Amino acid sequence: MTSAPVSLCGAARDRGLAQAAAASADDIARVRRAVEERVAAGRDLLQREDHRTLMAGCVDAADVHAPASRAEVRGLAEGFGLAEDDLLAFLHMPVLLDTAKARADASVEDGCSTWAAVDGSGRPWVGKNRDYGGDHAALQRLFRHDGPDLPAGPMLCLGSLGAPGAFSSGINARGLALVDSQVPTADHGPGLCRYFLMSEILGRCATVAEALALIDATPHAGGGCLTLADASGAMAAVELGHAAVRVETARQGWLARTNHHLSDALSGRLIERPGEPMGRSTRERLETIRAAFATGVPKDVPAFAHALMASHDDDAPADGQGLCRHGQDGDSRTISTVLFEPSARRLYVSMGPPCSTPWNRHAV
After folding, report:
1. What's the CATH number where 148 sits?
2. Contact 224/180 with Cβ under 8 angstroms?
């Protein structure tokens, strides 16, 4: 798959329409199938009164706190021939599944290993392995957004056809980079979903401090972690709940998150299925990252990141697992790797498993 960015220009709704216009007929069919199948599988959840109330509260929060993302969703739904309510349900399904405590009946789709680090020269870096299930790799694309509703300037985002903005990771023209990871939690409620929050951060913020202020001023649906760094070298890891949000910051060394919360406020709300491989994987992948940084941040971060992100279980420390996943965690597989260099406003990307897919470099 090519890593050449798909250019999306204009107002948010126009960018949504442009994404569909750039897609092939086969890709449009894949997007429709992915959305419609997921919504059909969750139809019982969507018919519950408590979930209808939750969805209404989340959509209201998006109308207030993420109007650009809402407009982009309208353009996407129109362009791909989807009902807007179905696309919104698709984007909020992880929240609904957690709230229904339905994880025991759901396949594990999202893994992801993320970290931020500042090297000895003071240059910040942000890395992510994107682990996803099903046929999602076929929908993966690199997008360049540019429009009047983006005060932080153009942004380069790794995401998916049919999804808005920074659906997985991104960097903007001011040098703010962020990545996410999914965390199944019982701490959900009416608020902004993580995907909309990420797009708002990249569209509006130039620094980690500005991003944290925006996060603090926003009600959250809950679920997941964000790992951020800006061009100055400020870093943060943000654990998102509805009732609780916890932030870890640093200006040297490194930060990392996988698929569980670490803070006292949120770690006890984790939803886990006994014996589920992801429960062990998320902790052991974090141990692999810790071991990799045990002697400090290396000088050649791209080479270091390539080796770390392409690591397999045979390469991992005794209490760790490799970061390049090939189905050991259920349906979840590594479908891409990104390494952001905020001070240079660029990213390195592997549009497939990093153990076997070439890396390419792109500037914002």
Report:
1. 3.60.60.10
2. yes
